[in-house]
Amino acid sequence: MKVAEMIKSLWMIVRSVIPLAGFLIIFQVLIFRKPLGDLKSLLLGIVMSVFGLFLFLKGASISLIPLGGSFGRSIVVLDNILLIIAIAFLLGFLATLVEPALTSTSLEIEEVSTGTIPSASITYSAAVGFGLGMALGVFKIVSGTSIKTIMVPFLIAMTVLVILSSKEMVGIAFDVAAATTGPVNIPITVAISIGLSSVIQGSDPLLNGFGLVGFAFMGAAMSILFLGTVMRFF
């Protein structure tokens, strides 16, 4: 990796983080008139955030994304659609379990609900839903099925679950689903979908390589809504 490229990438992250931190600090001090606390720790945290994001994004670009793309291009050699779908589900399930955003969100839910909604239930339900959504998205790419054919029943089922689920779980479901599409899942999922679509005969990666993240998001949301329905009636 060239030094000039590293400096350019680092500068892009600085331009993103510093304005955000500055905006929060200005409001905290000038508008809310609240102290910043330990200024040294605050500045150190901002620096660590910049370098942490830099290392993660660079690491993902040279490892997770190429590996995911290679996985997507290679999985078709199995020549068994059921096996491919099963592997896609397992990959989505395992990747979601280590998603840091989901972990923090599920712990917050457990704390706010005073333990009535265990974090493990949220985490594993979301992981199952994400895996199912990813499997469905891979099926769409491999089979060439129209996205409308899958999306319409998906939306109908989600609407029914929103009606049946407890009121508390409706909001939780969408926040948890958003948390599953974090820094671990997104590079892998997008790379796999584009890589897989690029080797399917007659498939346009621009048309069929995208949408997998959306399916996974909806799968996670539906899984949490289903959990809310079970908790409401049972």
TrEMBL record:
UniProt entry keywords in alphabetical sequence: Membrane, Transmembrane, Transmembrane helix
One Pfam family of this chain: DUF1538
Domain of life, source organism: Bacteria
Residues spanning the membrane: 12-31, 43-69, 81-102, 122-142, 149-166, 172-194, 206-231
InterPro entries: UmpAB
UniProt name for this protein: DUF1538 domain-containing protein
Species the sequence originates in: Mesotoga infera
